[in-house]
Each structure stands twice: as structure tokens, then as C-alpha cells.
Design goal:
Number of helices: 14
Structural class: alpha/beta
Shape: globular
Distance between the termini: 33 Å
Radius of gyration: 20 Å
CATH architecture of the largest domain: 3-Layer(aba) Sandwich
CATH topology of the largest domain: D-Maltodextrin-Binding Protein, domain 2
Largest sheet: 6 strands, mixed
Length: 368
């Protein structure tokens, strides 16, 4: 998608009048010529490269896999409800399903945050592996069931970046008091290092950095970040994004609406989500790589690695965050955390020989 096309569509979405999540209740499925019609609300501007594109892909895939019997219409952030209001809107019945990320719902329960990303945590394939093969999906269902939702992972951005910084980072001291945008458990990690953390959407982050209300911030990665224009304000682009080694995207369905479906249409929703996880992840990877090249070659972006002592300090802070989750007063949050830690430990020991070994070998100096 060209950036001018994205900006044109986001301007339309921003002008739409929103309603509160509790302003409507879930109506009986609208039937038109034998079709069930569902509303999907999203946390993204329409056609935002990355998550906005993925949300439309999901709406289209559910419609296609159902043979057109379950028709999903997408409403971007602000068109029906605000982007950060989609969880409540679907829980309360304003819409039947949403597309967002678990990192936005920490106010509901900190246990939710682990299903999206964890500082120094799971890669995209490992995140899906935990849910599909390590007992994570059952815990995911149990947590979201508290809110009348049936959740599915449906994509992943892969490794995120540490973000855009006006000034260079040379030591841990440079982080103290830094006004920084991030979300999820990464925000707690950063706060422990003395950073002043704020959560906001991508367009709001651009405006806050432009005005000086933010010193730095991370959103997703080169493909999405370039579309939002962060390079116009800050030229120092730092890696690795240890706060989010991957970031899963999710679809959550109103439980009442989901249970009212016949079994084959329930299957269509499930398969649509699962079958998009890898295509979405690999599209991010492919387009991030191309976008980074353009940012460096045409926008004078300076790609910089965080100093090792900063990474270690972040790792220690992340360890404190996870330790606090293990001691949470909510028994379900404890079980989610223990399941995550067990799976992380298992795959981390194997990856030393598998993916880590391959990537280290590929980085050696030889003719190829």
C-alpha cells in the first residue's frame, strides 16, 4: 500500500463519529438472503500497513471460508467505536468480533499481556507453539471467558524495534526520565528503569513526538513505522526491540454470537484465524526488510544497536516484571505465568542448537 493511500483512508476514519461500547447490545444475527452478518471492530486506522491490512484480510477470509454464509464487515478505529474500546464493545455486544493485540488489555488483567508479547520472551513461532502445543490456548480461553469472549491468535509482527529516539542512547542513565511510548509488559520493564512511559496509538505517537511531548517511542517495525512517518522527527532507530521479541495479533469473538453459530461456521472462524498467522507474520518480515532498506537509503535513518549494558539492565527489569506476575493475587494469572515460563525455558534450551545456531552460522564471513 502506498503511504498517500493510507493517509487518505485514515483521514476518512478519523472523521467518523464514534459511539461508546455500551451504547448498543448485540442484536440477533442480521440475515440477508440466508447470510449471517457480523461487525468487526479494530484497534487500527483503516488499511494501516501491517495490522490494518491484516484485519481486513481476516474479515475477508472468514467470509470466504464460510462460503459467504458468515459475512464480516470491518469497521476501523473510530468508525463504530474507538480503537481502545474494541474489547469492551465485543464483550458487551456492540460488535461480534474485534482485531487488536493483547498488549492493549492490561487494565483487564495483567495475565492477558502474556498472550501477546513478553520482554525477552517468545518469538512469533514460539508464541503460537505455546498456545497450540504447550497448554496456552486453554488458559487463553479461560482468561477471556471471564469477559464473554472467545480468543484466537491470527497474526504476528515478528520482532519489534526498540524504537525512534531523538538522541543517542549510550548508557542506562540516558533512559532515566525519558518520555517514551510503548505498551504491555514492555511498559513495566521500561518504568523500572526510570522511563516515563505513555501508551497511545501510532498517529498520536507521531503528534506527541512532533510536539515534544515524547522523547522517543516504539510502535511496530520499519514497514508500519515508515507509513506513519516517524523518521521525519527522529533519525535514531534502535534495535533489538527486547520489550517485544514478537507481538501477536488477536481476534476475539463475542461468546454468545460464537456459540450461536453452527459447528462448520465456528470452524471457519477458527481456521481463518489460524491460517492467517503465518502469512501475516511472513508479510511483516518481508516488508519490514524492504522498508528498512528504504529508510536507510532515502530517509537518512541511522540504525543503531542498544549498548550491551542497557540490554542487560532491561533484561533484569524484565525479570522483575515476570517475578511479580508469578506472585500475582489472581490464581489464573499465576498459572498463565508458570505455563509461559515453562514453555520459554524448554524452547530456549533447544534454540541454542536450532535457530540460534543457524543464524550465527549465516552471519559468518564467507562467500555465498
Amino acid at each position: 500500500m502506498k503511504r498517500r493511500d493510507f493517509l487518505k483512508t485514515t483521514a476518512t476514519g478519523a472523521a467518523a463519529v464514534g459511539v461508546t461500547a455500551g451504547a448498543a447490545t448485540l442484536a440477533s444475527p442480521a440475515i440477508a438472503t440466508g447470510k449471517i452478518q457480523w461487525k468487526m471492530v479494530t484497534a487500527w486506522p483503516k488499511n494501516l500497513p501491517g495490522p490494518g491490512v491484516a484485519a481486513q484480510m481476516l474479515a475477508d477470509r472468514i467470509t470466504t471460508l464460510s462460503g459467504g454464509r458468515l459475512e464480516v464487515k470491518l469497521f476501523a478505529a473510530g468508525e463504530l467505536v474507538p480503537g481502545r474500546g474494541v474489547f469492551d464493545a465485543v464483550s458487551e455486544g456492540t460488535a461480534e468480533l474485534y482485531h487488536a493485540v493483547p498488549a492493549y488489555w492490561g487494565s483487564k488483567s495483567k495475565g492477558i499481556l502474556l498472550f501477546g508479547s513478553q520482554p525477552f520472551g517468545l518469538r512469533a513461532d514460539e508464541q503460537f507453539g505455546w498456545l497450540a502445543h504447550g497448554g496456552g490456548q486453554e488458559l487463553y480461553d479461560e482468561m477471556y471467558g471471564r469477559f464473554g469472549l472467545k480468543p484466537f491468535l491470527c497474526g504476528n509482527s515478528g520482532p519489534q524495534w526498540q524504537g525512534w529516539f531523538r538522541n543517542e542512547i549510550t548508557s542506562v542513565d540516558d533512559l532515566k526520565g525519558l518520555k517514551f511510548r510503548t505498551t504491555g509488559l514492555a511498559s513495566e520493564m521500561c518504568a523500572k528503569l526510570g522511563m516515563s512511559v505513555q501508551a497511545m496509538g501510532g498517529r498520536a505517537m507521531f503528534q506527541a513526538m512532533q510536539s515534544g511531548a515524547l522523547d522517543a517511542g516504539e510502535f511496530i517495525g520499519p514497514w508500519t513505522d515508515s507509513a506513519l512517518g516517524f523518521y521525519q522527527i527522529a533519525k535514531n532507530y534502535y534495535w533489538p526491540g527486547v520489550g517485544e521479541p514478537s507481538s501477536a495479533e488477536e481476534c476475539a469473538v463475542n461468546m454468545e454470537a460464537y456459540n450461536a453459530l453452527p459447528e462448520d461456521l465456528k470452524g471457519a472462524v477458527k481456521i481463518a484465524c489460524e491460517s492467517l498467522y503465518n502469512p501475516v507474520w511472513t508479510e511483516y518480515t518481508t516488508k519490514h526488510a524492504a522498508a528498512l532498506k528504504q529508510l536507510v537509503e532515502t530517509k537518512d535513518v541511522q540504525v543503531k544497536k542498544l549498548p550491551e549494558d542497557v540490554i542487560i539492565a532491561m533484561g533484569n527489569a524484565a525479570g522483575e516484571v515476570i517475578s511479580e506476575l508469578r506472585g500475582d493475587s489472581d490464581e489464573l494469572v499465576k498459572r498463565i505465568t508458570e505455563s509461559f515460563i515453562t514453555y520459554r525455558k524448554s524452547v530456549a534450551s533447544y534454540m541454542v542448537y536450532a535457530d540460534n545456531g543457524q543464524m550465527n552460522a549465516r552471519a559468518l564471513n564467507y562467500t555465498y
